[in-house]
Design brief:
With 144 residues, the protein is mainly alpha-helical. Helices cover 52% and strands 7% of the residues.
Length: 144
Amino acid sequence: MRTAMKEEAGTEKEYLNQLCEEVRSLIHDYHIEESREKICEAMKDYPDAAEPHNLFGILMEKQGCHISAMKHFRAAWSLDPTFLPARKNIDNYGGFSRPGEAAYTMDDCRTDEKKERCKIEYDENGVGHVVKRKQNDKSGFFGF
């Protein structure tokens, strides 16, 4: 049974990305049963895809079913070890600290470029010295 969204999307990846965004919106608006139906249909249609399991894990976590959520995050990660949202959700919900936002798509896993915390500067004798960044230094670095 192909839905209109499947026919519009074209490829499997496009459909799964659209599904992730649609489920994000549904969960945000507390349409839990509709979310569950869409995710379960995707699991049936794409049994080897990581996205539906990750989405089901998010849904379970929102409903307070932590153990079930972690099982689905691990299933998603096992199906596709390159699917970063599953790994991020495992780290996010598996720790002792307060969890951050759920990762639905790869866009949710993008990090800002890491700031350089230290670098090596070489003196006139060719000896390298570690230079750390100082928080209030406008140039960004100070030497030891």
